[in-house]
Amino acid sequence: MNFAGQVVWITGASSGIGEALARAFAAAGARLVLSSRRTEELERVRRTCARPEEHLVLALDLAQPATFPALTAEVLARCGRIDVLVNNGGVSQRARAIDASFATERALMDVNYFGPVALTKAVLPSMLARRSGQVVVVSSVMGYVGTPGRSTYAAAKHALHGYFDSLRTEVWREGIHVMIACPGYVNTAVTDNALGPTGEKRGRREGTHIRGIAPEKCAAAIVRGVWRRRNEVHVGGWEVLGIYLQRYVPWLYARVVRKIRFSVDDAP
Fold it and tell me: What structural domains and CATH numbers belong to the chain?
């Protein structure tokens, strides 16, 4: 795989899958634009990447879409173009639907759905003008299934699939490719940072994620999918089978998922 000369903009690049993606794309020759809210952590990630002096750190808050046109203009001014936009930033959830405040649900949708959509809309005109580019969306197995404690998170991921599957059909003739990545359990801080009923952070990692695949393995599969211009990539362990159970044997999936117990007080 060779991304030499390509500009890759990654959101949520300060940790987890985004951090691993940054190192993987840099190792493949790409020039990076690293974004999240945490500038200090982005600088740390930049320094760990191959050719750190080539990469740009750009603070971005996915809940502030009004800032995206100016940020996109800054990237284009400093880098000349955007070859690959990786919509990776997001936040998970751990709350029963009946307990989740509407404000928290709206915040989850703003970050996980409206943020990637708004950033894509800011970047897309420059790709269309060049008739070249790739848009990557890091979704989740939850983009296909629903499990207890993740109702709004699952809704946002389902929405991403509908939007970006449709976008793919609109822009392929213009030389733009859209890929959706669906990780399962990855050993990152996603559950530590997951929002509870009133927006509080869960503050601990769940056993399913501790036992999940390494973020580097997930990133390698995503980068490989971008290189091969795949429409969709599924990566993880046994939990990825849920996608196929839901699709082909929905009655069996329903029986399995009913056995899952959830409480915000559950131990990892």
Answer: 7-257 (3.40.50.720)
Catalytic position from the list 153, 185, 244, 248: 153
Per-residue pLDDT of the chain (268 residues), as tens digits, is 899 999 999 999 999 999 999 999 999 999 999 999 999 999 999 999 999 999 999 999 999 999 999 999 999 999 999 999 999 999 999 999 999 999 999 999 999 999 999 999 999 999 999 999 999 999 999 999 999 999 999 999 999 999 999 999 999 999 999 999 999 999 987 878 899 999 898 766 666 767 879 999 999 999 999 999 999 999 998 889 899 988 999 898 888 888 887 665 553 3
Cα distances from 190 to residues 22, 105, 115, 224, in angstroms, run 17, 17, 18, 23
Assess whether 248 carries a catalytic annotation: no
CB atoms within 10 A of CB 215: 22
DSSP assignment of the chain, as one string?
---TT-EEEEESTTSHHHHHHHHHHHHTT-EEEEESS-HHHHHHHHHHSSSGGG-EE----TT-GGGHHHHHHHHHHHHS--SEEEE-----B-B-TTTS-HHHHHHHHIIIIIHHHHHHHHHHHHHHHHT-EEEEEE--GGGT---TTBHHHHHHHHHHHHHHHHHHHHHGGGTEEEEEEEE--BSSSTTTS-B-TTS-B--S--HHHHTSB-HHHHHHHHHHHHHTT-SEEEESSGGGHHHHHHHH-HHHHHHHHTT----TT---
The structure's pTM equals 0.94
